[in-house]
């Protein structure tokens, strides 16, 4: 049931993206197939990444990966492109400097959160989408959109809420 809901949300996102930016932004195959995401990740790809990171990824993210192993954005100046599961990594590995900057600003809490976060979208783009694992202060995964141009993070309660927010922002344009 969850998978069908995520598929519908991604399908709606694609349709609204095509309406907003036009079909010329997408390849003919994407337009004809009515799909811009990569093919689904395999169970072994997800398991290999979990082993490499030393963590069990959240179920809703794994559900997303079972539909699309990577999903481009219609507007990389505002929304990040989701990576293939084999590309995700700890933010401190990818962008150690941003972690150190935040730790050095006196905002130790944000710096500590960034240090444990996993970047799943936005490599080489203006913003990141991060998964923050549970720790000794929280028992749930956290979901952040994070960029230098955002005054702090934008937190979502789950991945579905993020995609619904993207659809809503397209609708309001």
UniProtKB/TrEMBL annotation:
Q: What protein name is recorded for this chain?
A: Knr4/Smi1-like domain-containing protein
- List residues of the Knr4/Smi1-like domain: 40-165
- A Pfam family matched by this chain, by name? SMI1_KNR4
User: Do you know which InterPro entries this protein is assigned to?
Assistant: Knr4/Smi1-like_dom, Knr4/Smi1-like_sf
């Amino acid at each position: 049931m969850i998978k069908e809901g995520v598929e519908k949300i991604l399908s709606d996102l694609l349709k609204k993206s095509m309406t907003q930016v036009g079909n010329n932004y997408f390849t003919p195959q994407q337009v004809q197939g009515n799909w811009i995401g990569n093919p689904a990740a395999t169970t072994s790809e997800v398991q290999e990444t979990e082993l490499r990171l030393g963590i069990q990824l959240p179920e809703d993210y794994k559900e997303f990966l079972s539909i699309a192993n990577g999903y481009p954005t219609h507007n990389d100046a505002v929304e990040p492109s989701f990576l293939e599961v084999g590309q995700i990594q700890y933010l401190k590995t990818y962008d150690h400097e941003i972690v150190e900057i935040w730790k050095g600003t006196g905002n130790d809490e944000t710096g500590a959160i960034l240090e444990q976060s996993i970047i799943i979208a936005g490599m080489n783009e203006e913003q990141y989408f991060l998964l923050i694992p549970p720790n000794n202060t929280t028992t749930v995964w956290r979901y952040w959109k994070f960029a230098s141009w955002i005054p702090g993070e934008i937190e979502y309660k789950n991945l579905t809420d993020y995609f619904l927010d993207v659809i809503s922002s397209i609708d309001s344009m």
